[in-house]
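sorry to bug you again but im stuck and you know this stuff better than me. below you get a single protein, a line of residues and a line of whole numbers that encode the local backbone shape. mainly i need to know what kind of three dimensional shape the backbone takes. anything you notice is useful, everything is just below:

***
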Amino acid sequence: EYQIATVLQDTSTYTHSNHRTLTATEKWDDPSGADYDPIGDIQEAKSAVRNLIGRYPNSCILGISAYESLVKSPEILDRIKYSQAGVVTTEILAAVLDIPNIYVGMGVYTSGTGESFSDIWGDNVVLAYAPENPRSVRVPAFGYTFEVAGYPVTTRWYDEDTTTNWFRNEDYYDFKVTFDGAGFLIKDVNS
């Protein structure tokens, strides 16, 4: 996840200029900002993808802090106040944003023992189109994870001397962005 998140949150991945960094007046954690419009920001990104590939993004990855700001957004809450219990879930966000697959990046990492954890996904939003069941290279797709057939493989053994169960996991894969025009990055959505 860390490797993929690093690639997806790097503006140089998006050579078709399908990225933008929010200004101080656009930040999602400050509804009083003069240019505050989270839904508009996402709609703009969706349109940019559609203009390049003829399809809207079908997936959205929100860093946890971006997600937390978005679900507190007065715009979102106003749209659901008469039809929902007032709790915004990924399913409700999918309906409001008209993006079928909403994912919240909650993974964390640490650089070493005793270090505090950091979020893998920053306060960023990635929108992308990838076919649900890819059957042709002619269908535009933001990226794929290529994996060697038969992997991953997990091996388990017991060591009598140390009375320990050991596990080894082997996996051979690579993630490739196949067409960056099928994705859009919104960076730094919070202050």
